[in-house]
Amino acid sequence: MKAIFLLIMFQIMSTIKSYEFTIEEATIDEIQTAFNRKKLTSKDLVQFYINQIEKLNPIYKAVIEVNPDALDQAIKADQERKDNTTKSHFKLHGIPVMIKDTIATKDKLNTTAGSYALLDSLVSRDAGVVNKLRESGAIILGKSSLSEWAHLRSSLAPNGWNARTKQAVNPYVATMDPCGSSTGSAISVATNMVTVSLGTETDGSILCPSSANSVVGIKPTVGLTSRAGVVPVSPRQDTVGTVTDAVYVLDAIVGFDTNDAVATGDASKYIPKDGYLKHLKPGGLEGKRLGILRAYPYFGFANDSKTLTKFEKHFAILRQSGATLIENLDIINFDGIISMFNSESIAILAEFKIALNDYLKDLLASPMRTLADVINFNNKFAGLESLEKYPQDLFLAAEKTNGIGKLEEEALMNLTNASVYGFEKLMKENKLDALVTPYSDSSTVLAIGGYPGISVPAGYDENGGPYGICFGGLKGSEPTLIEIAYGFEQATHNRKPPPMSINCDQ
């Protein structure tokens, strides 16, 4: 698939095809075949993407920094391939990856969450997922833009805005919301500025930009991928995902990490012994039970007749491909369950302050050691215009919290109960393999319980704006979700490149 967290190609999860190779819209399989046939080198591939970034990034603002060592890494990869080293046989070997600017890289790149407050800070180590990428032979091409501080600084800032790159632009319809916080991760893949990318999601930050930018995004079960070295929001909900040939990347980055031992240790039991690639198989929808709720916000289509009409053709495709659609489902005490969702912001604000302070203290060098330091920096340097437009209301609310007290404990219990008596009960009682929802409307349902989801391109509206379809499941259900998503993708081939991304010289 071409993911956040966080995704893309004409056939995002597709197998190799017989037509003549071009870099634009090429999958990992196609690129590796071109490497093996000596039609392409990693150096040429990296140079192509650097050229694309120089041409397109001034328009779309999806990339914050390009790695000055990327070409050297590519030359090294080419030599490893020539020497037939063990690493050269890995699927991600020599493949450029864009990393969201909340994910630490211990190299010449900054890790700033889009804020000048962390510019020139020194991280102590690569993030766990970056270390796994390097071990797989991937090339770190650069850092992608995002909603500043993963959209937790200001409630008024639009999706895709940060101080360092300003406003990211949707490549399909410039006036359309690029969505989420992993905006640059999705846009950079959608516009062929990189092969694959990593994003992060606390609530919607992979699924939403994937839907809005016509790419595949996998938001994994919390703990399946390490969050060590990631600028945090909520360790309870944060997860690193992929916006690309997603399954190849997921295979590379999952697993135990001593620096995120509890979460990755608990989730390691979900990782299939033979990996995830074997679940990219024909007939993946055959026999699957898919739930569709037509009258429930967050869980379904909320009686939106326009959206339902738009997705009816997709329901027909799912049925024709062998899936059973279970409709007219009911959620007991739905109003009570939805009221518990309001506890999410209470929990996240307290968790954010604790986790961010811990992250900042772990930096080798930085004038920022607490959330209060960041707030003071913005007051001093952000500029009057910026603070008037996008005040630090979320930062200030988080700073007022004082750990996990009675209010926060009650909020956390509400979120647990909402998950157990809402989503989990719905899935188990109806023996569902996945819940089907439009766009990224189920992101909060999946977020508060740490559940996985996959967004796949579903089509384009009357203005050319992309939209996705989301398949969500219980913890550890990634193999089943991949089969479902792959089956849908292969039956529809909805992905098409944005109008400017290929013919960028015109």
UniProtKB/TrEMBL annotation:
Name the Gene3D superfamilies for this protein.
Answer: Amidase signature (AS) domain (3.90.1300.10)
Signal sequence annotation? 1-18
The Amidase domain is annotated at: 44-441
Which keywords does this Swiss-Prot/TrEMBL entry list?
Answer: Signal
Source organism's superkingdom? Eukaryota
Q: What is this protein called?
A: Amidase family protein
Q: What is the native source organism of this protein?
A: Artemisia annua
